[in-house]
Automatic annotation (TrEMBL):
<dbReference type="InterPro" id="IPR010997">
    <property type="entry name" value="HRDC-like_sf"/>
</dbReference>
<dbReference type="InterPro" id="IPR002562">
    <property type="entry name" value="3'-5'_exonuclease_dom"/>
</dbReference>
<dbReference type="InterPro" id="IPR041605">
    <property type="entry name" value="Exo_C"/>
</dbReference>
<feature type="region of interest" description="Disordered">
    <location>
        <begin position="1"/>
        <end position="34"/>
    </location>
</feature>
<feature type="domain" description="HRDC">
    <location>
        <begin position="245"/>
        <end position="325"/>
    </location>
</feature>
<dbReference type="Pfam" id="PF01612">
    <property type="entry name" value="DNA_pol_A_exo1"/>
</dbReference>
<dbReference type="InterPro" id="IPR002121">
    <property type="entry name" value="HRDC_dom"/>
</dbReference>
<dbReference type="Pfam" id="PF18305">
    <property type="entry name" value="DNA_pol_A_exoN"/>
</dbReference>
<dbReference type="InterPro" id="IPR036397">
    <property type="entry name" value="RNaseH_sf"/>
</dbReference>
<dbReference type="InterPro" id="IPR051086">
    <property type="entry name" value="RNase_D-like"/>
</dbReference>
<dbReference type="Pfam" id="PF00570">
    <property type="entry name" value="HRDC"/>
</dbReference>
<feature type="region of interest" description="Disordered">
    <location>
        <begin position="323"/>
        <end position="344"/>
    </location>
</feature>
<dbReference type="InterPro" id="IPR044876">
    <property type="entry name" value="HRDC_dom_sf"/>
</dbReference>
<dbReference type="InterPro" id="IPR012337">
    <property type="entry name" value="RNaseH-like_sf"/>
</dbReference>
<protein>
    <submittedName>
        <fullName>Ribonuclease D</fullName>
    </submittedName>
</protein>
């Protein structure tokens, strides 16, 4: 299917002339093997230079993907990098043995547009390798702006290209060596269709008058700074709602930090070193000795019994803290209170937010763009809770909104800020 035909096909398949949905079921063609065969994994300096030369000689955008070992390793490094470009074919690179050899590839990729799916997930691990795009196209974000009902790579490839990707290895331990052949086929196929998908989405966005919106969103993703360190990340421990007392919270904090240090040393995902449930259990039970600790669920296992003194030391540190060093039950917030309290605390703010949300919801329906892509909900709440001295447009820009969002949202927000209970 050509790109133009695909774009027209999706419009025809989702709506009829009156805008009502129609069902045109077409069985997708399974995509089972790379068109040019499975490439050899690149894992030597000489092979890296050859890949770089081939990609530099190719034409058009470069499809890129990366596989990590989330849930298995502490680090978020890439364990496989996949690339494809017209005229160059596909490449699979094992970055572990050639980590110091990415200079030529970085040079080859500095200029062409990169095509990624959910780019914000892969850009950090690619940046660790010295790979940074000069221009970006994010197929997932494009799908959201185009109003597609499902924006996972598999569903979009089925809907727009009539092909079915066999999934199943995305959550695998990609630090495994050697990588199984079926995993490599899966990885190669993820970039096999990205450029064609990009072309269909680009046409679809152009026809909808959203291409400039997408360009601004892609640039925001490309240039986004690293997120700041999270304050008290231990507070995200699953099940922490069971922990009520400050001394128990201190125990969670000490165990979490001890686990994090050990996980980083071993490059193992923290949850595989000690589950969150075990941290909460020990904090609530407050055992008074290592022997009592290993009577608790999870700590009875051989691995945790060997670490009993290590975990017990963390609990002892929490137990010896003076009262003024115990963590507070909650952190102070620089943002507005929960929305369900607005009506009591500031009825006018509640009225402003209700009016703004109604307007944004109407825009979402009119332009077929999810509400959260029209404007970050947190920014909308902040502006409605404490109206700015400046214009709504200036407040939106100060909060990081893109110009297309400002153009759409500022007029309705100006009106909403005048609402009173």
């Amino acid at each position: 299917m050509q790109s133009g035909d695909a774009a027209a096909g999706i419009l025809d398949a989702t709506t009829n002339g009156s805008g009502a949905e129609e069902n045109h079921t077409v069985e997708p063609e399974p995509l089972l093997a790379p068109a040019d065969g499975l490439p050899e994994v690149t894992e030597t300096p000489a092979a890296m230079r050859a890949v770089a030369d081939a990609l530099a000689a190719g034409e058009g955008p470069v499809a890129i993907d990366a596989e990590r070992a989330s849930g298995f390793r502490y680090s978020a490094r890439a364990y496989l990098v996949q690339l494809r470009r017209t005229g160059a074919g596909s490449a699979l690179i094992d970055p572990i043995p050639v980590r110091a050899e990415f200079g030529p590839l970085a040079t080859a990729l500095d200029g062409p547009e990169w095509v990624l799916h959910a780019a914000s997930q892969d850009l950090p691990c690619l940046a660790e390798l010295g790979l940074r795009p000069a221009k970006l196209f994010d197929t997932e974000l494009a799908g959201r702006l185009a109003g597609l009902p499902r924006v996972g790579l598999g569903p979009m490839v089925e809907q727009l290209l009539g092909l079915r990707l066999e999934k199943g290895h995305g959550a695998a331990d990609w630090s495994t060596r050697p990588l199984p052949e079926d995993w490599l086929v899966y990885a190669a196929l993820d970039v096999e269709v990205l450029i064609e998908l990009r072309d269909v989405l680009d046409q679809l966005l152009t026809e909808q008058g959203k291409r400039e919106w997408a360009a601004q969103e892609f640039e925001a993703v490309r240039t986004a700074p690293p997120p700041p360190p999270r304050t008290d990340p231990w507070r995200r421990t699953s099940g922490i709602h069971r922990v009520r007392r400050p001394r128990q919270l201190a125990a969670v904090r000490e165990l979490w930090q001890a686990r994090d240090e050990l996980a980083a040393q071993r490059d193992i995902a923290p949850g595989r070193v000690l589950p969150d449930a075990a941290i909460v259990e020990a904090a609530v039970a407050a055992p008074d000795s290592p022997a009592e600790l290993v009577k608790l669920p999870i700590y009875r296992g051989r691995a945790q019994r060997r670490l009993a003194d290590y975990w017990w030391s963390a609990l002892r540190r929490a137990g010896k803290l003076p009262a003024d060093q115990l963590p507070p039950g909650t952190l102070p917030s620089d943002g507005p209170p929960p929305v369900n309290r607005w009506a009591d605390r500031d009825p006018d703010a509640a009225a402003r937010l209700a009016a703004a949300r109604t307007g944004v919801a109407e825009l979402s329906e009119t332009h077929n763009v999810p509400v959260e892509n029209l404007l970050q909900p947190d920014l909308l709440r902040r502006i409605c809770w404490q109206p700015p001295d400046s214009s709504a447009a200036e407040a939106l820009r100060a909060g990081g909104a893109r110009e297309w969002q400002v153009d759409l949202i500022a007029p309705l927000l100006e009106h909403a800020l005048l609402s009173r209970a």
